[in-house]
């Protein structure tokens, strides 16, 4: 049976970059799981790459059909934004290994759905000052910067990724400091290879 590599961390820790670099390592043979969101698409994002973009109606239809594996709803400055993973035929653990980016909360829900033995957690960490600067730099590039939402998300991460919640999720050796991207990527790659028996 295959496993799901679950990349997580606070906003602006470099998860997206590490995710893309891991996918470039073809020998890992990691398949992607595209999550869904109801938030607006950002500049440089593409439908079906970072997310499947939908709306509240689309979410409700999937919920009614019993296809929601896990979901998070954020009350943002711009209204409710949902992020969710759906049982839409993307995941077949009998056919290989997968990789996805999510939150600590969504990781716990995925463990409940698939079982702990099917998940390989990878928690990426960065100094909060570095994260804040990265988030600000990214938001400035948006056509319509949403600074209020950026601040809300930054503060919410402190609660969402508290040491208590990390411990409750059973994450210990799966934590990686992203001070140097290449070094972090090397450590993460080695860990995943060992966990997948490669």
Overall description:
This protein is α/β, with parallel strands linked by helices and 198 residues long. Helices cover 40% and strands 23% of the residues. The chain contains seven helices and nine strands; from the N terminus they run E-H-E-E-E-H-E-E-E-H-E-H-H-H-E-H. A five-stranded parallel β-sheet has the order 2-7-1-8-9, with helices on both faces. Strands 4-3-6-5 form a four-stranded mixed β-sheet. A hairpin with a 2-residue loop joins strand 5 (68-76) and strand 6 (79-86). The radius of gyration is 16 Å and the shape is globular.
Produce the secondary structure layout.
Layout: E1 4-9, H1 15-24, E2 30-32, E3 36-37, E4 52-53, H2 56-64, E5 68-76, E6 79-86, E7 97-102, H3 104-114, E8 119-125, H4 128-140, H5 147-160, H6 163-168, E9 175-177, H7 181-196
Parallel strand pairs: 1-7, 1-8, 2-7, 3-4, 8-9
Antiparallel strand pairs: 3-6, 5-6
